[in-house]
Write a structure and sequence with these properties.
By secondary structure, the chain is an alpha/beta fold. The protein is 39% helix and 13% strand. The protein contains 16 helices and 17 strands. The strands form five sheets. It has a seven-stranded mixed β-sheet, with helices on both faces. Strand 1 and strand 2 form a beta hairpin. The chain is globular, with a radius of gyration of 29 Å. It starts with 20 loop residues before the first helix and ends in a 5-residue tail after the last helix. The N terminus is likely disordered.
Length: 479
C-alpha cells in the first residue's frame, strides 16, 4: 500500500504562511509553537519523513529545518530518542517573549488554598473505600471480555444495555437478592440518578412520595422531571408506608427497604406488605433503591421487596457501592408495563454506560469474582463498624450507634441540641462529617433528632484509625 499522511506517527499542526518560501515558513512556525508554549519542553516531534508527508513538502526541507533549530537550541536530537523540544533556555532574542508552559507535574499540583481547606479525614457518606477497587481482578476480567467481545459490541449499542450483562444480572439478582428478573426487563443505566430521572418521567402523572430522611439530590432529580414530591415519615421501623393511602395524587414511592438511608433501619415486614398492598390497590409503583443491600453483617440480608410483586415494584441496583462510582453502572428491573416507556425515553439521547465496562462486569459476575470481592469487603466494613462501636463504648459511652449492622455508614445518636456544635468541632479536627439534619426533607415536619451519619466505609484502610480518633475527639464529653 502506498504511504500517505494518514499512516504516519505523531500529528503536529503547523501553518506555513508568510514570505521566504516553505523552509522559512516552517522555521517560523516551529519557533512560534515553542515560543508560545504550545509545544512544551520535552515534546517529541514527528520524524522528518512523517512531517514532510503531513505538510506535503520535501523531506529534505524538514530535515534542514530541524537541523537548524537544533543548532539554535530550540530543539534537541539524540539517536533513538528522536527530535524533541529542548529543555534548555530559549535563545537570547526569544527570551523576552517566551511564555513558559507548566510541566505536567506542575499542572497537577493542587492549589495551596485548596490544599489548606481540604479535610484530613473524610467520614461523609456516598462512596465506598475506592482504594479497595479490585484492579487486578477487574483488569483480568476486562481482558477476557475484550477478547471474547463480538465486533458489534464496539458500536453505539442499545438503550437496554449489553445482553451479556443483563443475562448475568438476572441470574445474580435472583440468587443473591431474591429479585424475579427477566433479562428483557432489565435496563442498564449510567448510574442510579439516571434511572430515577427516567422513571420520574415515564410514570403516569402524579406526585412521588419520598422518605422524609434521604438525599436532597434525589428529590431534585424528581423535581426537575416535572414531578412534585411529598415526604413520607420515617421512624425506627422504616418508612411509614401505611400512610401512603392518605396521600392524594401519589402514584409512586421511592423507598430504601433493605437499609434506610440515612437512618440505617430496615423496613418492617408489616410496612413492606403495606407498601406492596398500596401499589396493588392503586396501580402505583414502589421504586426500590437497593443501594447497599449486599452489605449485612449480623445475618443474611433481607431479600429485595421486588420479589413480593415484580409488577408493582421497580428494582434499582448499582455498582457504585459494591465496586466504584466511577464505573457509572446501575440497573433497573422493570414491571412489564414500564419497559417500553422507559426505553422510549432512554433512546432519545440519554447517556449510555460504556459497552466495554458492561462486558467486563458481566465477566466479573459470571466468574464469581464479584462474589469474592463482596465477601472481602463485607469483612473489611464489618471490622470497621465493630471498631467504631467498641471505641464509642470505651471513650464516648454517652453516644450510641443506632440502626442495623449493615451498609457503609452508622448513625450516632447525640444528646439533644449538640449536633451542630459537634460538626463545628469536627471541622476543627480536620474531619469531614455530616449530621442527620443534612438529610431531612425541609418540606416535612421539623426534625428534632440530633445525630451524626458516620461513613466508616469511605476512608482507605490506612487513614481509618486517624479518622476514628478525630471523630471521638469531636464528640461531646460524657457526664
Amino acid at each position: 500500500m502506498e504511504d500517505s499522511w494518514a499512516t504516519f506517527g505523531h500529528d503536529l499542526h503547523l501553518d506555513l504562511t508568510g514570505p521566504g518560501g516553505l523552509r522559512a515558513a516552517l522555521l517560523r512556525a516551529l519557533r512560534e509553537a515553542v515560543r508560545s508554549g504550545r509545544l512544551a519542553p520535552g515534546t517529541r516531534l514527528p520524524s522528518s519523513r512523517s512531517l514532510a508527508a503531513d505538510l506535503g513538502i520535501a523531506r529534505n526541507t524538514v530535515a534542514d529545518a530541524y537541523a537548524e533549530l537544533v543548532a539554535e537550541g530550540w530543539l534537541s536530537a539524540r539517536q533513538g530518542s528522536g527530535t524533541r523540544v529542548a529543555w534548555v533556555h530559549l535563545p537570547d532574542g526569544a527570551r523576552g517573549s517566551a511564555k513558559p508552559r507548566a510541566t505536567p507535574a506542575a499542572r497537577r499540583a493542587p492549589d495551596p488554598a485548596e490544599r489548606a481547606g481540604r479535610p484530613r479525614f473524610d467520614l461523609t457518606p456516598g462512596t465506598p473505600d475506592v482504594s479497595a477497587f479490585p484492579r487486578t481482578a477487574w483488569l483480568a476480567a476486562a481482558r477476557r471480555a475484550l477478547t471474547a467481545a463480538p465486533s458489534e459490541a464496539f458500536g453505539y449499542g442499545t438503550s437496554r444495555g449489553r445482553p451479556e450483562l443483563r443475562t448475568v444480572l438476572a441470574d445474580y439478582l435472583a440468587r443473591a437478592r431474591g429479585v424475579r428478573a427477566d433479562p428483557e426487563r432489565i435496563v442498564v443505566c449510567a448510574g442510579f440518578m439516571q434511572g430515577l430521572a427516567l422513571l420520574s418521567r415515564a410514570l403516569d402523572p402524579g406526585r412521588l412520595a419520598v422518605e422524609a430522611y434521604g438525599l436532597d439530590f434525589h428529590r431534585a432529580v424528581i423535581t426537575r422531571a416535572g414531578r412534585r414530591t411529598v415526604p413520607l415519615p420515617v421512624d425506627e421501623r422504616g418508612a411509614r408506608t401505611e400512610e401512603l393511602t392518605a396521600l392524594d395524587e401519589v402514584r409512586a414511592a421511592l423507598l430504601t427497604p433493605a437499609h434506610q438511608f440515612p437512618t440505617g433501619v430496615p423496613l418492617h415486614p408489616d410496612r413492606r406488605a403495606a407498601a406492596v398492598g398500596w401499589a396493588r390497590a392503586t396501580g402505583g409503583f414502589i421504586l426500590e433503591d437497593d443501594y447497599d443491600g449486599e452489605f449485612r453483617y449480623d445475618r443474611q440480608p433481607v431479600g429485595a421487596l421486588q420479589g413480593l410483586d415484580p409488577e408493582h415494584v421497580v428494582y434499582l441496583g448499582t455498582a457504585s457501592k459494591s465496586l466504584a462510582p466511577a464505573l457509572r453502572l446501575a440497573w433497573m428491573v422493570l414491571p412489564d408495563r414500564l419497559v417500553d416507556p422507559v426505553l422510549a425515553l432512554k433512546s432519545t439521547g440519554e447517556w449510555q454506560s460504556g459497552a466495554l465496562d458492561q462486558l467486563t462486569l458481566a465477566e466479573f459476575l459470571s466468574t464469581g469474582a464479584y462474589d469474592r470481592h463482596l465477601r472481602g469487603m463485607r469483612l473489611r466494613y464489618r471490622r470497621r463498624r465493630d471498631q467504631l462501636v467498641a471505641a464509642l463504648a470505651d471513650r464516648a459511652p454517652q453516644v450510641r450507634a443506632s440502626g442495623i449492622a449493615a451498609g457503609l455508614h452508622a448513625v450516632l445518636e447525640l444528646p439533644p441540641g449538640t449536633e451542630q456544635s459537634v460538626l463545628r468541632t469536627a471541622r476543627r479536627q480536620g474531619l469531614a462529617l455530616e449530621g442527620l439534619h443534612r438529610f431531612h426533607d425541609p418540606t416535612a415536619p421539623p426534625a428534632t433528632r440530633d445525630a451524626l451519619v458516620v461513613a466508616y466505609g469511605t476512608p482507605p484502610d490506612h487513614s481509618f484509625a486517624g479518622a476514628l480518633d478525630a471523630l471521638l475527639r469531636a464528640l461531646p464529653p460524657g457526664e
